[in-house]
Amino acid sequence: MNLQEIPESDLVLVALVPNQRDLDIARLLGWYRVPLKSSPKVISVDYIAFYQGGAYPVDQRWQIRYIAPVLGHELRTRAELLQDQPDHPRASEEYFKIVLGPLIELDHPIPAGNWRRVLFFYTTAGRLCSAEELADLPVHDEERDVLWHALRERALLANEYRATELPQAALDPAILALLSGLKRQG
Questions:
Q1: How much is the pLDDT for 184?
Q2: Which domain holds residue 139?
Q3: In this structure, what CATH number is given to the domain that contains residue 155?
Q4: Least confident of 18-22, 72-76, 90-94, 149-153
Q5: Measuring CA to CA, which of 45, 93, 146, 175 is 20 to 30 A from 152?
Q6: Distances in whole angstroms, Cα of residue 42 to Cα of each of 3, 58, 96, 149
Q7: Residue 122 placed within a domain
Q8: d(C-alpha 63, C-alpha 54), whole Å
Q9: How many domains does the chain have?
């Protein structure tokens, strides 16, 4: 699937993916995590656009290079999601586990321009397709009412969501170790 096949009105959550490990988890394991305490109000969107911040190599930072379809979400503790970090200070905190389809690489990354500090904001697939830089993504015109109406509908539908509909799979510690850059000892 390419970006032009996505309906222009589809909802997109632009979200910071803080480091390469988190992007690798999204790509290889098919999920992305958002702390419940700092999550956006609506998680039920059609796509996530991954904003790569300052922790990436120079040629990959300050841009959106990938998007992924959202298949569902559920609440999990950090310890359940990142089983290789059971003693992390936030291990018992709840996170949304957003289940993803395959990552789609954009034909042309969307550079941040003057924007650097991005955590979350909403846009549409139409804006994502036509954006030349990050500042083109926020909805400020007549589309704003349409966007907020769609977000409100999604929020209401999310109340009917059942996490048990998602497949449950244990994480392989070897994969987590590879993602962490750790050498498996055995």
A1: 41
A2: 10-180
A3: 2.30.130.30
A4: 149-153
A5: 93
A6: 22, 32, 11, 12
A7: yes
A8: 9
A9: 1
